[in-house]
Amino acid sequence: MIATRVTEIFGIRYPIVQGGMIWVSGWRLAAAVAKAGALGLIGAGSMTPDLLREHIRKIKKEGIEGVWGVNLPIFFQYAEEMAQIVLEEKVRVVFTSGGSPRKYISRFKERGIKVAHVTATPELAVKCEEAGVDAVVVEGFEAGGHNGRDELTTMVLVPQSVDAVKIPVIAAGGIFDGRGMAAALAMGASGVQIGTRFAATRESSAHENFKRMMLEASPTDTFLILRKLIPARVIKNAWYERVVEAEKRGAGEEELLRIIGEKRTKMGMFDGDLVEGELQIGQAAGAIRDLPAAGEVVNAIARDCEQIMAEMPGRLLRNQ
Ligand SMILES: Cc1cc2nc3c(=O)[nH]c(=O)nc-3n(C[C@H](O)[C@H](O)[C@H](O)COP(=O)(O)O)c2cc1C
Is the model's pTM score more than 0.90? Predict the structure, then answer.
């Protein structure tokens, strides 16, 4: 048990959130994380509305005691329909991302849903607070998936966001173990959101090829692309090279969209095409050397974080 405002608000044992991830975090991953006492999120951003409903019903059927929710990217074409499904299915927690949550907040809050929004600057964290969210996730440049344009790293983003808002801040980007979590809490965060580490677990629905690639990745294998469109952190492959080449010669939005094409993320992350697919993952991939069960990840991170915090004064005396 690590008690913070985030554990109180969401009713979880550990202030750890498994970030919503397209093609990776379906009901199985969210359920495994929830069972272990953290918050598991179904990533709606790669689903159709019907599929989202199916995943929600499957996780409900598990009858788990833990807490789970849905990550709803606001810019997504089905956002409106999915918000309705969330209400109909009486989902208790929603993490919105990629756009302003303002439009949805009162509808969710009226039904007692706990809402957090993912953002990438202290200024936007303030806007989230004004919009009425219960907590804000601030995600640094190290993170996998879509990324903020301002390229703030977690280390500078978290303390400045904590100073800027009164609501609890959840730190994201580059956190993959108990050390990272302890550091985030030391900077004033009330919890952590983790993506990459959970993508490399047994219950993640990432393709086995992609999981294998994560195991082999070095910390310098991921790059931020598409800064002018929607920045995304990916692992280098042939498709990535084409995007970079086009960006270097100043290709316009239309050409870049053509290179991205349709279903590029599915091709890479879900179907396992490591050459032509888009493979979103964070810098933390360099630290991943195993594919444990998601519950083991939660337990190890929470245990190590607690131990580090308890031992900190002794560590400082020994090491400095
Ligand atoms: C494969 C992948 C897909 C992601 N998809 C989404 C998404 O659909 N919506 C979202 O809000 N964040 C998404 N993210 C970001 C995560 O929810 C999380 O904030 C981020 O991964 C944290 O940084 P980390 O990867 O360093 O742990 C994705 C991340 C990864 C690695």
Answer: yes
